[in-house]
Write a structure and sequence with these properties.
By secondary structure, this protein is mainly beta. The protein has three domains: 3-95, Tumour Suppressor Smad4 (Sandwich), CATH 2.60.200; 102-167, no CATH class; 181-306, no CATH class. The protein is built from three helices and 28 strands. The longest helix is centred in the C-terminal third of the chain and has 17 residues, at 263-279.
Length: 308
């Protein structure tokens, strides 16, 4: 996540893909220095790097000690200082990573994702999951009680009793990760050893391995259901592996306190699985787990289950 830090206040600002700076409160970076213009400059992701462009400000935009002319743009990177109207009141780029999916609450709280799936309002109390659907080239939000619906950059959504504005990167340049696998052609290998479940993704000799995590148990249960249904010759593939969401907690091991897994635990596990697939570079990672009203299934068709 790209960050810009104000030197004087030490306050850090997460950058969206297109970030407007100025004295107008509506802008992403609200400038309080009186030498800044109402709409002063824009910072934006340009395919492979961040740039800043002066928008005709009265007192100029500075990159280092250089003043940009009106409309001029310049690449900025980690360690570079940028000033808006006042060279003595700079900001420093402390992270120049590509833009990520983010949300900002009405109260100013910012949440960001390290992949193309964002848990709202946080990963442990998930109400909505915002994710990119490759095959449809669009962003969607999905909740346990609400089917998928399309969302756009700048939209507002309510989660956890707060209103959140979404900041969604464009996917044309695929800045968030390099694709390595395709969901419909990879092999998912589930390896069970005692209480531990490891996961492998393999395609064309390329392999990713994941050591035991709690959410791997959900993969195991759903993989078992999909393999079971594949043995039913009369059952079409579109029907393979669907599990009643209300019965699913009883199919999982109990938590450390001896209680059955909650629906929230399952929601979080679904998010973690999709996040794992996306970080591994899987195209269509959003479909690694599929939902329909009252049911859930694993979205991978090629499965190998290795268990005692």
């Amino acid at each position: 996540m790209a960050l810009l830090r104000h030197i004087a206040s030490h306050e850090s600002h997460a950058l969206r893909a297109l970030h407007l700076a100025g004295r107008a409160r509506r802008h992403d970076l609200w400038l309080t220095n009186p030498r800044a213009s109402t709409t002063h400059a824009e910072l934006y992701w340009a395919d492979s790097a961040w740039e800043v462009r002066d928008l005709g400000s009265s007192n100029g935009t500075f990159v280092g000690a250089r003043r940009l002319v009106s409309g001029e743009r310049m690449k900025i990177e980690r360690g570079v200082r940028v000033a808006f109207g006042d060279l003595e009141d700079p900001f420093e780029v402390i992270n120049d990573d590509p833009p990520v999916v983010m949300a900002k609450s009405h109260g100013g709280r910012v949440i960001a994702a390290g992949s193309r799936t964002l848990a709202m309002p946080d990963p442990e109390s998930l109400i909505y999951e915002v994710m990119f659907v490759d095959q449809e080239s669009r962003w969607v939000a999905e909740g346990r009680e609400r089917p998928r619906f399309e969302v756009h950059d700048g939209d507002w959504i309510e989660a956890g009793g707060e209103m959140w504005q979404l900041f969604l990167p464009q996917e044309g340049s695929r800045t968030l990760r390099k694709p390595s696998f395709f969901l419909n052609s990879l092999t998912l290998r589930v390896i069970v050893r005692g209480d531990h479940t490891a996961i492998e993704l393999e395609q064309g000799g390329d392999k990713r391995s994941f050591q035991h995590r709690a959410h791997h148990e959900l993969i195991y249960v759903l993989a078992h259901a999909r393999l079971r249904d594949a043995d039913e010759a009369s059952l079409p593939p579109s029907e393979h592996g669907w599990v009643d969401a209300h019965e699913l907690p009883a199919m999982l091991s109990k938590s450390r306190d001896g209680n059955a897994r909650s629906e929230n635990w399952i929601d979080v596990a679904v998010h973690r699985i999709r996040e794992m697939f996306d970080k591994a570079g899987v195209i269509n990672a959003s479909e690694a787990i599929e939902r329909q009203p009252g049911e859930i299934r694993l979205g991978v068709g090629k499965i190998e289950l290795i268990a005692p």
